[in-house]
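Good day; I would like, with your permission, to put a structural problem before you. I would ask you to consider whether the tokens describe a fold that such a sequence might reasonably adopt. The full record is reproduced below for your convenience:
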Amino acid sequence: MSKIDDEDVSEFISLVKKSAYTGALTGAGVSTDSGIPDFRSPNGLYSKVPGDIFDLAAFYRNPARYYSIAMKYVHNMGENNPNDTHIMLFLLEKMGYLKGISTQNIDGLHKKAGSKNVFEIHGNANIFSCVDCGKKYTKRELLSILDDSKKPLCDCGGIIKPEVVFFGEQLPYEQLKKSEELALNSELFVVIGTSLSVYPAAQLPIIAKNNGAKIIIINRTPTELDFIADYSYRVNLAEFSKKVIETIH
């Protein structure tokens, strides 16, 4: 990871401004500057919770156990504030340069920052719904139910599940479809804060590349798809984004 280079910032802004259609993919590295741990680092989420926390079968066996752990480590993410990278992407969308964001993150911070065209391919930890009737619940409503009975049961008797993709569960079709369309249509595709090791999200820049898009990868560390990047910036994301915000106006 290197010091922020003004020439890199200028180059990035120039590429975005020249592109007729730009899409983005974001990962956990975008949200670490908001105080949200990633999943797989030594101090990440998986170092603090049982290994089966996102196993679908384990959830259905004992949903109360899941919530007793996840309310502390997972479903508090929405309480954090967006950082400069979220703000930068919102600004690019507001200025008409960015057509959409596909994100692996479940914290909802892109929407909290103001971005409108966000495709949450791994779900959103701030939304809960009944697996039987589909009724949606806020975190506050669910906590009230758990306080009363310890069982996350809907009025209809169904289990209330977070709208997060568990292992053994299909990704939300519409969100994935829109993400693929974003990649297919992109003239420029920007990847930020992901190691590109988790599929099908990591397939998106490949789809974009195969359809003629230029690929920008912005990350603190090397990724598994650096070899397809046309431009690569190994930087602190928030610092880079802050420079972009200051320069693009």
